[in-house]
Amino acid sequence: MGNPKKNSRNKLFTKKNGFIFAFLLPAVLVWAIIYAYPLFNIFFTSFTKWNYKNFLNPEFLGISNIFDNYIKLFTVDRNFQMAFVNSMKWVVLTMCIQMPFTVIVALVLSKKPLGWKFTRNVFIIPNIISTAAIGLIFLNIYSPSRGIVTEICNMIWPGSDISVLANPTYSFWGVTFAFILFGGSSCLLLLTQIFSIDPAIYEAARVDGANERQMDFLIRLPLMRPMIGTVSVMAANYGLLLYNEIALISQGGPDNATYSLSYYVYKTGLGSTKLNFARANAAGVIQIILGLVLVGIINKAFRTAEED
Amino acid sequence: MVEKKKKLGEFLSSLYGKIVMLIVIFISLYPIVWVFLSSFKKNPGGLSLPTEWIFDGYITIFTKLNILTYFKNSFIITITSTIISVLIVSMAAYVSARMEFRLKGLVTMMFSTTLFIPAISISLPIYQLLGNLGLKDTHLGIIFIYSGLGIATTYFILRSYFLSIPKEMEEAARIDGCGYAGSFFRIIVPIAKPGISTAAIMAFLNNWNEFYFASILLKSKEKMTLPALLGQFTTAYSKNLNGMFSAIIVTVVPTIIIFCLLSETFVKSLTAGAVKG
């Protein structure tokens, strides 16, 4: 007949398992549909021929030219090459402009001068309002007829009549300055890290005669290092994935001067007449790989010193 | 002499601090202030202040454009998807924080992968899938996507919060005859309110501002969210300048007001969201 005690434990065991299963199921299902399935899908279709001509039946490229889409992206696809270079530039620029700027602001605010909280909160505003709105605002700022950039340039250099979005170089910088200085949430995280530093360390430094500037360089910056790493990953990712600002300000133009990888994926897979799904998905795979490589590099740069 | 030098140093460093703060305030606010002032001009734009204050743009967007419809759409979509995602992810996070089972590591790993998968890279299959299900251009489709997009951040915020709640809470509940689900919904959820609201604010903010999926999936005007509507101003409504400037202000001002009222809560959410993610 079996041991009743064991029996009840068995029952409990299955009930518990049922509970675990039921509670995990919805989230795992959503994950599977929104992330896992599309991930496998883009990976496999990136090895097929699949464009507007054979919309319904992607054809496998065959083992001999399995990397055809990837090779074409890097050899013949001018839009992709531009997108690749631009996205890399945006990653580097976030590292060279946004990060130092944000760190400087965090160091200044960390001394809690008058109005530091107000400044911190104001700095966050561009990060919490919709990027669609930001994009639209900058579209207007750059407009020659109603914007302010052309007007200001004309004051400094009469008759220059600069049209930001008509010139490839200016257009690139126009898109860049629509996001690159907005490091408010990063600044917030850096501040949290600075405030968590043991005050005894400052006391000790002060006794040794260190001034504020020395404490910035010798105490705050080194101790902020892990958080700078975290924030850099987020900033670099933003640069790598840039889309909204481009879609609203320049639509990739003029010509293809402001294409990003994300914009390329959209344009190639959804936003043109000669769609090429396979190539868009191959670009998506490349974007994911680049993201992983970036995270790896940044983590290594900011974490190794800690372990030494 | 030394004293003088020190004073000068202090003065310079406080001056430097003030300049940095002024620059930050300027770059953060000038775009919005400029649009705000321009929205009242007869011909929006330019550097000058409005000579006469005109409210045409605001009147147009509330009457002809029916901006309240877009507010309603945004609100319904954002609220529903935030509730769904916080609910299902909190269930999963609770189980993984509290229960022992095989494949536990796998569950956490699965959700962490989403941090490394940019939504746009995988957007074509999602788009096609929704098309096949007949959910393109529907609120249901976009709610479904939003429910899944921030899964990792929500998961990590909630999991660490559940881990911080003492186990005795549920043990006491279970002795009193509460089932597993009962003790979760009746005991844990009320205790975990701060963690849940942190996660919910992050999810709400992201879904409220989401532009990409809204712009590719919602094609009928009456179904659009606010960000998708703003996208329309680059093409369909580009002639209506007063309307565009007013629409930008009407879209961003509620967010800014709520942020000003609840800035400490927001600051906590933003911190938790990024650190755990």
Outline the secondary-structure elements.
The complex is a heterodimer of chains A (308) and B (277).
Chain A: H1 4-45, E1 48-49, E2 59-60, H2 68-75, H3 78-110, H4 116-128, H5 131-142, H6 149-156, H7 168-176, H8 184-195, H9 199-207, H10 212-241, H11 244-249, H12 261-269, H13 277-307
Antiparallel strand pairs in A: 1-2
Chain B: H1 2-38, H2 56-63, H3 67-98, H4 104-113, H5 123-132, H6 139-149, H7 151-163, H8 168-175, H9 180-191, H10 193-209, H11 212-217, H12 226-232, H13 241-261, H14 263-276
Task: Please tell me about this protein's structure.
The complex is a heterodimer of chains A (308) and B (277). Chain A is mainly α and 308 residues long. Chain A contains 13 helices and two strands. Chain A has a single domain (68-307), classed as MetI-like fold (Orthogonal Bundle), CATH 1.10.3720. In chain A, helix 12 (261-269) packs antiparallel against helix 13. Chain A is globular and about 75 Å long. The relative contact order of chain A is 0.13. The longest helix of chain B is centred in the first third of the chain and has 37 residues, at 2-38. The N and C termini of chain B lie far apart (52 Å). The model of chain B has no long low-confidence stretch (mean pLDDT 86). Chain B has helices at residues 2-38, 56-63, 67-98, 104-113, 123-132, 139-149, 151-163, 168-175, 180-191, 193-209, 212-217, 226-232, 241-261, 263-276. Chain B has two domains: 2-55, no CATH class; 57-276, MetI-like fold, CATH 1.10.3720. In chain B, 74% of the residues lie in helices and 0% in strands. Chains A and B meet through helix 1, helix 3, helix 4, helix 5 and helix 8 of A and helix 1, helix 3, helix 4, helix 5 and helix 6 of B.
